[in-house]
Write a structure and sequence with these properties.
By secondary structure, the chain is an all-alpha fold. Helix content is 60%, strand content 0%.
Length: 70
Amino acid sequence: MQRFGEKLRTLRRRRSMSVRELAAALGYASHSYIGDVELGKKHPTIELALKVADFFGVTVDQLVRDEQDV
């Protein structure tokens, strides 16, 4: 799951969203958690993985398996 943050950043940028916009869309009051996950400073929760998968229309496997791309 080392690449989760990279994949999250890629998906966010494809939609031309800021970290703040994505955090708000996912229901987070602050953008710092999303930013920290993207930078690899924090590990994503299963709740975040599910929200991201639903929002971007990808599978959780694509997000968490390093050998799969989004």
